[in-house]
């Protein structure tokens, strides 16, 4: 069974000048992998903040969608507001050019609905088309 929980930034970091994560979903999906059950799907803005410079951004990109598997030995919400420790590299990551933070949050919610419906994989290899499925899903929501 797939369980989704909305993840919020820590209470002391909600100020937009320091917090880059706009929204995120914790996803529990033990059927997706034999070792880890939890995933974190997040959207961040790519504006420079007091806490971080704008680096690693593609020209003209405003937001980034990322999906991480969470380390199976971590069972608490950490200081970044994530359940456990993200395993790197990200399962999926794409920078986008969006009109607003609200458009980014709506896109995130649409992707979560597709995950819940079994239409988007949380785990995939470079050879099974999972990356392309995510890219096509995002493109379809933005067209």
Say what oligomer this is. single chain
Give a short account of the largest sheet. Answer: 5 strands, antiparallel
Distance between the termini: 31 Å
What sort of overall outline do the alpha carbons produce when their principal axes are compared? globular
Cα radius of gyration in angstroms: 15 Å
Structural class: alpha+beta
Mean pLDDT: 77
> What is the helix tally?
2
List the secondary-structure elements in sequence, H or E. EEEEEHH
Strand content: 15-25%
Question: How are the strands ordered across the major sheet?
Answer: 1-2-3-4-5
Q: List unreliable stretches of 5+ residues.
A: 77-82
How many extended strands?
Answer: 5
Helix content: 10-25%
Task: Describe what you observe in this structure.
It is a single chain. The radius of gyration is 15 Å and the shape is globular. It has a five-stranded antiparallel sheet with strand order 1-2-3-4-5, covered by helices on one side. Helix content is 20%, strand content 23%. Residues 77-82 have low confidence and may be disordered. The chain has 143 residues and is an alpha+beta fold.
Give me a quick take on this structure.
The protein has 143 residues and is α+β, with helices and mostly antiparallel strands.
Write the layout of secondary structure elements.
Elements: E1 3-7, E2 21-28, E3 38-45, E4 63-69, E5 92-96, H1 101-116, H2 130-142
Antiparallel strand pairs: 1-2, 2-3, 3-4, 4-5
Helix pairs in contact: 1-2
Keywords:
alpha+beta; 2 helices; globular; 143 residues; five-stranded antiparallel beta sheet
